[in-house]
Amino acid sequence: MKLVLASSNPGKLREIRSLLQMDVVAQAELGIADAEEPHPTFLENALAKARHASRAARLPALADDSGLCVDALGGEPGVHSAYYAGREGTREERDARNNEKLLGQLRAERGAHYVCVMVLVRHADDPRPLVAEGIWRGEIANVPRGSNGFGYDPLFFVPELGKTAAELDPAHKNRISHRGAALRKLLALLREPAPR
Asked: Which strands make up the sheet holding 61-70, listed edge to edge?
């Protein structure tokens, strides 16, 4: 099956491509712009992205919407994770500002989790999209550590490993991350026989 991947985030593209054993083309390679993400939930945003890419490419589409949810902030930044501290600048500049803003808002309570909702539509109007969710629990570190990963990975501390997500090698991160968990669930759904 050939899929269009509904993302222009290079970190997500790298991770998803390393986990999939399929022919995957990024939407940017087809000249497809990012979809709007105005919705309040990860699921609605992932569906909007998948349907947009599928309609434009006329191919099945895979999309994820993911973010960091911090307990002390009532689940923020959540669906606003990518633009938590504004939309200006490059992806790297936004990531740095997002991390700085997050650290400035936290005190003693540091519990957090990453969420990833992965959606696959067979065509733009697919009435039964495949949906899977992955959650990765951890804490927010006091200072950024590590140079792998992207986004909040330098701050996302995994207590049982004693490392941040950005200190893990990419293959290890993919085995235990929210995105890896969601994609494995989605692939299992894809292998199930279709209902009659």
From this structure: 23-26, 2-5, 61-70, 111-121, 130-140, 156-158, 163-164
Secondary structure of residue 122 in the 3-state scheme: coil
**Residue 136's domain spans which residues?**
2-191
Nearest to 125 by CA among 57, 23, 51: 51
65 is catalytic: yes
CATH number of the structural domain spanning residue 113? 3.90.950.10
pLDDT by position in tens, the chain (length 196)? 789 999 888 888 888 888 887 788 999 999 999 998 899 999 999 999 999 999 999 999 999 999 999 999 999 999 999 999 999 999 999 999 999 999 999 989 999 999 999 999 999 999 999 999 999 999 999 999 999 989 999 999 999 999 999 999 999 999 999 999 999 999 999 888 766 6
Among 64, 65, 95, 153, which one carries the catalytic annotation? 65
* Predicted structure pTM score: 0.92
